[in-house]
Amino acid sequence: MELRQLRYFVAIVDHGSLSRAALVLHVAQPALTQQLRQLEDELGARLLHRSAQGVTSTDAGKLFYQHAQAILKQVADARAAVAQSTERPSGSVTLGLPHSISGALALPLLTAARARYPEITLQLTEEISGSLTEQLKSGRLNLAVLFDDGQLGQFNSVPLVEEDLMFICRPGSAFAPAGPAISLADALASTLILPAQQHGVRPRIEQTARGAGLALDKVIEINSIAILRSALLADIGATLLPVAPVRADIEAGTLAAWPVEHPAITRSVTLCSSRNIPLTNAAAAIGRLVRQVTEELCASGHWPGAALAG
């Protein structure tokens, strides 16, 4: 198996066509077809379905595509690590952010990276936290912001912030508390719109509830922040979330947030990298920048509900 075969295969999948991939790669289509056939023969599996409309991945092809992407990225990182200097780091860095964090961190980080490290190409990917963990394990991400659920021992991790979860719903809603805060028991008794159990804030809510001898009652599960926000605006229920993902709505008065008490719910936000794949100079520089931008956002109040860890 050769690296060029991996590059060819990834290009074919990305472009959905042998002919388009051949044009982009500047390779004759018969040669591309031959390399693909050799790869399939070596693997003993068909990777692509071919039709007049183009190509689509088989189940084996989808699995191999993920591994091929990770291998090609690690090869590129290895080359970049040799060529880079610590004074002027350059190259590509891929950072994963959970949906509920990107609203606070993504734009300030991109702006800071362009100003501080113009020779680094920073690629941000926004995913559910479970997907980010798998991509970081496989090497498809250099860095990821994850929530410390006690299971991050497989990664190098640096605590960033402790973030408060708030009770959020429409102002004047039947779900809205009467006072300036709401107890966890009353919050859990409401109709709550939350991510599924393995995603986002849900594990932390479940853990805090169990510690207080409480349980969730009525839950509507929605994993998309955008859809969850729409459900809140439609007054289908309330949620327990950090303020950052819906900050614009709270500032506009279309949503309102109340502190949760007895007990409060917080989550630990952590910057993680692989223990097995060394960081390039560029990735290490972006890691330092993430911490710096986080400190600035907390100091200025532009990451509401967050306090620096430690």
Automatic annotation (TrEMBL):
Full protein name: LysR substrate-binding domain-containing protein
Keyword Transcription (UniProt): yes
The UniProt record lists the keyword DNA-binding: yes
Residues annotated as domain HTH lysR-type: 1-58
Family, as annotated: Belongs to the LysR transcriptional regulatory family.
Pfam families documented for this protein: HTH_1, LysR_substrate
Organism domain of life: Bacteria
Residues that span the membrane, as ranges: none
Signal sequence coordinates: none
Keywords from the UniProt entry: Activator, DNA-binding, Transcription, Transcription regulation
